[in-house]
Amino acid sequence: MTPLLFILTALCGLLIGILSGMFGVGGGIMMIPLLNLVFRLSAVASAATSLFVVAPTALSGALRHIRDKSVDYKTALLVGLAGAAAATATSSVSDSIPSLVIIVLAACLIVYCSLSMFLSAKRLGDKSKEGASASRFNSAGARASARIILGLFAGSMAGIVGLGGGFVIVPFAVSFFGYNFKQATAISLLSIAIIATPGIVIHAILGHVWYLYGIALMVGTIPGASIGARLISKIPEKAARLAFGVLLLTLGILLVANQLHATV
After folding, report:
1. Would you say residue 133 has pLDDT above 60?
2. Helices (H), the chain
């Protein structure tokens, strides 16, 4: 890698990090197409290198939220630990799943999550200051079970598609658990840092990670995530939800294009 390419990669990482910190995604949904389509890494290397960057990026944004005292640790740990277990289990079988199934699954899920955010923004009253809505689960047991199920679902997506799971965690935390957008992003970032860790270890052992690209990205993503986590508190709740929905649709198109490119 030339010095110029390293700098350009770091600048791309800075933008990815800012968006990650703002919207509670680890950045994998952005990094995989970048590494595969632009830098021409293989599909496996792109997913592995992305995960290598996702955990420290998400942790950087989460630390900012921790300082702001906006993290629900119980929810983040339940989602993160369940997700880590699911990611470990599904990563070993991801190669046996047809690429077309992965494409359809990712596309449907991303569309659902983006529409969920659009609808939640529409339902949000213009006079709402916090933007929180009521949880759909009344008992503590139901809430804990739902958080574990969400973690298993997000972790499965991490293991199969190579993403951190934030694009699933944020919409569900808002729509089903009643968190406002900033709280949802805080929970998501800490959960992602936990979910991505087993995948990093597995891919590192298998030799899939391209470390120089990963380090170049982290030079930008780590400070960028902290910046993004600070910026999200300045964006109105309704605008944040709409922006997240638009971001999901855009990145979903890129992700599907990347998967289609990999199968050609």
Report:
1. no
2. 3-23, 28-33, 43-67, 73-91, 99-123, 140-161, 166-175, 181-206, 211-231, 237-263
